Amino acid sequence: MTPLPSPLHGRDSALLSLTSMLDAARAGRGGALLLRAEPGFGKTALLAYAMGEAPDFQLLHGCGIEAEAELPYAGLHRVLQPVARRVPELAPRQAEALRRVLDGEADESDGRACLLPAALFALLALLAREGPVLVCVDDADLLDPPSREALAFAARRLDPARAVTGDAVVILLTSRPDDGLPPPGLPVLALSALDDTACAAVVDQVAPVAVAEGVRLRLAAAAAGNPQAVTELVAALTPDQLRGVCPLPEPLPPCTGLQHAFLRRVRALPDPTRRLLLIAAAEEELDANLLMRAADAAGVDLAALEPAESAGLVRVDPAGVEFRHPQLRAAIYRTAPLARRRAAHALLAGLLDASRQPLRRAWHRAAAGLAPDHELAEELESAAASARRRGGFATASAAYERAAELSTGDDGAKARRLAAAARDAWHAGRSAHARDLLDRALPVAPGAAARGELELLRGDIDLRDGRAVDAYEALLTAAHRLVPIDPELAIRAMMRAGEAGVYAGDHHRFLQVAAQAAPLRAAGCSPQATVMLDYLEALSAIFLGRFGAALAPLRAVLDGAPRIDDPSALIWASIAALILGDNAQGRVMAARAVALARGRGALTMVPKALEFSAYAEFWTGRHAAATANALEGLRAATETGQGNGACHHLAALALLDAIHGDEQTCRLRARTALDRAGLYGLGLPAALSTWALAFLDLSLGRHADAAGRLRGLARAGPGQGHMAVAALSVPTYVEAAVRTGAADAARAAFTTFEPWADSTSSPDNLALAARCRALLSEGGQAEEHFRAALDLHAMGERAFERARTELLYGSLLRRRRKRTEARVELRSALESFERLHADRWAAWTRAELRATGESARPRLAEPDGELTPQQRQIARLAAQGATNREIAAQLFLSPRTVEHHLGNIFAKLSVRSRVELANLLP
């Protein structure tokens, strides 16, 4: 019998074992199983599953209760109550033994000579004559010993290999790993922690609303493989927090139910053991040397930890003390009396070296005290600054925050420390906590300068995970505060405000900011301020259509930015290089930005740097590299709570999907990006997503739909479109419009693209302009423009666009009956499309070749050579044994989309199963 669908994600093996046992019992072969696992791992849920799968069984069930663990046979009394009326049917001595249990008269002496355990087995055999029997006992480790021994006696005699036909009894017990079970001969199934994919599936199952991808990943990681932790975390969040509309709390709420289960075991430990566990819980970096010194200082033998190890709560090795679950560490620390926590911190502070471990020592000193302490606050601030220089932003943030709490009477110092804590929390990817720290800092910030810096940081956060217009207003307000006090910082605020305008697709706001920044240029400007002003000037000229005026400031950005040790400056340089047509420099600058952000540990900068690195790779025709960067950036953005950054990466991926002809994935990603863009006013990803859908329409032959989308994009206002994307998509629009007979509209659109292409001197851009002229021309003039376009493509890098030009030119030649010439262009186009895995375009080209009288077959290549890059990734993950859900989580797709792709992959590779796929692929 195949197991029915179950909500117990990640427990397929356990479900199969339970279902097989039930099937065997129906055939007259009994069996037993002990399920062992940590609290919250789903033991009770598995018993419930078994009971639900056994409607044809007589069911006996019970559970261990700690309060009754000292009452002999209390557990067995609960289990046997439903069948008490059948006891008189047993042999007299056995019936009398069970009667004493049911009447509450039995004591431990009744278990001697196996009389009562044998009576229990006889009763189960009696019941099984009328049909299969299922006995389920949860928390068997909490049963009174005689009941547990009697159940184990019966369970051992249900070995399917030796069972007598007719003994159709299944006994299922659960216990924690440290319970002293199993008795010899009892089979055991140990449940392990769920993987991240299964945890994510549990999130989706128990959440009342659709959960944002970043939230799902965060909760799955915090649960550390424990499904009960997942359930409790989801229950503690609001629907808006689950949807990603509101930020998650920092830290995440405690899992009180799971913590209670752990604490029940901790309270049973000796007091010296609990003292050492509290010390370990107070210091996450407690290595073996410090542990030994701490035990000695506390006057406790290190061997006191052995009961905790035997109980399965911790593992002690040379690296220190490892808790079985983060919630266990939190529970031990949170429930300890305040005096004990302070004593533990004071002890640790006294053991740490102030010169080698300044931050940890200062932290414990601060935790040991309650009152504000000016000297200690300064010590923490100094140690936090050192941690920041080493890239430890999360640690530095916590230290700055504690230093602010210890600040005495100086609001300026408190605000400065809270601001530093917020900045480092943001760099560590904790945007929600950064916002909370800013809220605490603003009321105590003394003066316009301090408030301006705080508003600048808030605007930065909103830019990556909030409404673009809100970010613009916050950044512009910060700039106005800072102009008379710190002009260079004001320029940075204006630069960020300009970026907010760009993300919103509101070039009018950008022009306003650039105009306000221009007067701040002075001879004494720093190199970084100069680069920012040059960038603002260049983009202003482009938005005003004065492309020639943009060239000098763009070159200034490209020259000046690499001299600045800053990822943002390198991103601006990458954009400048791409606009100028210097594609190689564009890629280099973007790659340097990614490397620098990673090297500094600035987690929030990595997704942004990868975003522009993906654009650089895409714009230069390196689609596989662009896809890899966008996927990595998407994951990094979701993990650091940057919803807007994730939206940009999704839009870029949708455009790449459209090029490769992956219709289902393209529509899914584009729709997701458009939903986020509409909610947060993000015109740039909205425009990219629209372009992706239009390009997909073009590849499907839906020319009117493609033209309609791009016509709407050109007219879209802020938050819905973007001038630059509308201009870059003009070649797509010209092709679609010409095919629908709207040549005049295509000519009008081309007037916005041609001046920019001419100004860049980029062979790729000039080739696209020549192709547009060819499509808008007739007769020999069209052929002349196509040849000019191909000459320019030969000097460029965009192989995909060159192949599209060859396809269009070959199609024109074929229609003019120049079949021999047409075949030359079409063969070249087909080779490129096949190499780039642009399947739909390759299909169009084969159709054109057939129309010339030539039969074109797909080229032979490596086993997965006919797959798109997306399909190749899915195929290789499937061949490695990943499930559909695991593949979906890794590639940010839905399981249904993965299933659809696998069907196409099997068809393309002529295989029928994952086994054949694994044998085919290396």
TrEMBL record:
Q: Which Pfam families match?
A: AAA_16 (PF13191), GerE (PF00196)
Question: What are the leading ranks of the lineage?
Answer: Bacteria, Bacillati, Actinomycetota, Actinomycetes, Micromonosporales
Species for this entry: Catellatospora citrea
Residues folding into a coiled coil are none
PANTHER family, alphabetized: TESTICULAR SOLUBLE ADENYLYL CYCLASE, TRANSCRIPTIONAL ACTIVATOR DOMAIN
Please state what the protein is called: Helix-turn-helix transcriptional regulator
**GO molecular function per UniProt:** adenylate cyclase activity; ATP binding; DNA binding
Keyword terms of this UniProt record = ATP-binding, Nucleotide-binding
The Gene Ontology biological process terms listed for this entry are: regulation of DNA-templated transcription
Q: Does the keyword Nucleotide-binding apply?
A: yes
Which terms in the GO cellular component ontology are assigned?
cytoplasm
**Sequence ranges assigned to domain HTH luxR-type in this UniProt record:** 860-922
Matching entries from SUPFAM superfamilies are given as:
C-terminal effector domain of the bipartite response regulators, P-loop containing nucleoside triphosphate hydrolases
In terms of PROSITE patterns, this protein maps to:
HTH_LUXR_1 (PS00622), HTH_LUXR_2 (PS50043)
**What CDD domains does the record tag this protein with?**
LuxR_C_like (cd06170)
For whether the record's keyword set contains Hydrolase, the answer is no
